[in-house]
Amino acid sequence: TPAGRPAPFAIPTDSLIGDAWVPSASGKRIKIADPATGAVLTSVADASVDEAMGAVDAAEAAAAAWAATAPRKRANILIACFHAMMAEQEWLAHLISLENGKALTDARGEVAYAAEFFRWYAEEAVRVNGELSVSPTGGNRILVQYQPIGIALLITPWNFPAAMATRKIAPALAAGCTVILKPAEETPLTALAVAEIMRRAGVPAGVVNVVNASDPGPVCSAILHDPRVRKLSFTGSTEVGRILLREAADQVISSSMELGGNAPFLVFDDADLDAAIEGAMVAKMRNAGEACTAANRFYVQRGIHDAFVERLSAAMGALTVGPGTEPGTQCGAMINRASIQKIERLVADAVSRGAEVKLGGQTLDRPGWFYPPSVIANVQPGSEILSTEVFGPVAAVIPFDEADEAVALANATEYGLAAYVYSEDLRRALQIAERIECGMVAVNRGLVSDAAAPFGGVKQSGLGREGSHHGLIEYCEAKYIAVSW
Ligand code: ADP
């Protein structure tokens, strides 16, 4: 049980279908492990394809009434969700920390970030404005109205189990869509708790449904082949994104994809070093590096390089590593064994090609999945860590000489999600930002995520945007009505 005020309800572990929490008929359950110990925490219902189709039925039954609900009323329900979620911040943070492993401080931040999507989209729900224009011939009027796209399947990852769910649910509901959420099998409890909070805050039955599946492929495929489903929003790996785009192709389902990243972090000689270190700590160590926006490659100009490596190693080395739920922990556990193995492989590859380990570099010998904050410098071209997201607390540092070289290095990846630029010359920083092939650039800061901003990637980092007004339009179709005048 979390510290402070306990949860006002037992955390659900079944599927939410319409107005009921239903166990799976087969009795099959998915075990949920605590990454800090490896111990099994509990289990959740493993929904069958039939049960998932029941969720589509429930979403369909609620769809017309929800789309017809006055925008102000939908907004009021969403703002009630915001307040309800913030009221439960402490135990919800504890729950996130338990099933995901992240430090409580990160988890509290996630709850606030997640709840913010409810507030932002409560404010957007009443501002879905259309357009009226005169056709160039003058003979008719062009009327454009934004209508809800229809039932949406939302598939979320384990790294932000609350925020990735609300970032999709809130705009969908604001637009007038009903949804089926399929959380990651590693971290379903947070999503189930958020769904219960939403139910209690007044979200009508069937508007939000949640199913978990140990084998998500067949369940998601069945949903994406149901003609009533019109939208897919996915956050996860590029590899699974490609599979889902193929699945969505059969019914030509509108797809929003937030996929992998490989964020470069550029530091120029004229950067404010204190600020760059502070930003690097956020960009690298938020969520212990388990973020698609996490800085993966630090390109540092020669004149400031050695000082940067020394200062970053000191700052990262000062972090307290431990179970996320323990007060004082700053870097929690990685999600699972596979994650640790991937980090080990990428570090070993970089070292074998000549990189120097300045800090950490070895899995901790203790129960659970712990990798320490690590800095590897002089990472050589061709090292796999430069092309693959490490998704852990490892900073790879590479020196550069010229701005053009830094931009070329930053762009030498099939990904294009986030990038970071540090320079006190704002004109240069903005010019560099324009040239980096990515969806988001942070200038002299270590954080891009904001409910009010369009989050998303270019190249193989994804399609579409979440957050801001852009995120709402992803759940709408433009209806054009030609009117004779
Ligand atoms: P990660 O590598 O971060 O675990 P994944 O892309 O594997 O990310 O998983 C993200 C989400 O995609 C999870 O909810 C997972 O269950 C789901 N998923 C994985 N494979 C499939 C699939 N074949 N079809 C539908 N969803 C899938």
Automatic annotation (TrEMBL):
<comment type="similarity">
    <text>Belongs to the aldehyde dehydrogenase family.</text>
</comment>
<dbReference type="InterPro" id="IPR016161">
    <property type="entry name" value="Ald_DH/histidinol_DH"/>
</dbReference>
<dbReference type="InterPro" id="IPR016163">
    <property type="entry name" value="Ald_DH_C"/>
</dbReference>
<dbReference type="InterPro" id="IPR029510">
    <property type="entry name" value="Ald_DH_CS_GLU"/>
</dbReference>
<dbReference type="GO" id="GO:0102810">
    <property type="term" value="F:glutarate-semialdehyde dehydrogenase (NADP+) activity"/>
</dbReference>
<dbReference type="GO" id="GO:0004777">
    <property type="term" value="F:succinate-semialdehyde dehydrogenase (NAD+) activity"/>
</dbReference>
<dbReference type="InterPro" id="IPR050740">
    <property type="entry name" value="Aldehyde_DH_Superfamily"/>
</dbReference>
<dbReference type="GO" id="GO:0036243">
    <property type="term" value="F:succinate-semialdehyde dehydrogenase (NADP+) activity"/>
</dbReference>
<keyword id="KW-0560">Oxidoreductase</keyword>
<feature type="domain" description="Aldehyde dehydrogenase">
    <location>
        <begin position="21"/>
        <end position="481"/>
    </location>
</feature>
<dbReference type="InterPro" id="IPR015590">
    <property type="entry name" value="Aldehyde_DH_dom"/>
</dbReference>
<protein>
    <submittedName>
        <fullName>Succinate-semialdehyde dehydrogenase/glutarate-semialdehyde dehydrogenase</fullName>
        <ecNumber>1.2.1.16</ecNumber>
        <ecNumber>1.2.1.20</ecNumber>
        <ecNumber>1.2.1.79</ecNumber>
    </submittedName>
</protein>
<dbReference type="InterPro" id="IPR016162">
    <property type="entry name" value="Ald_DH_N"/>
</dbReference>
<dbReference type="Pfam" id="PF00171">
    <property type="entry name" value="Aldedh"/>
</dbReference>
<dbReference type="GO" id="GO:0009450">
    <property type="term" value="P:gamma-aminobutyric acid catabolic process"/>
</dbReference>
<feature type="active site">
    <location>
        <position position="258"/>
    </location>
</feature>
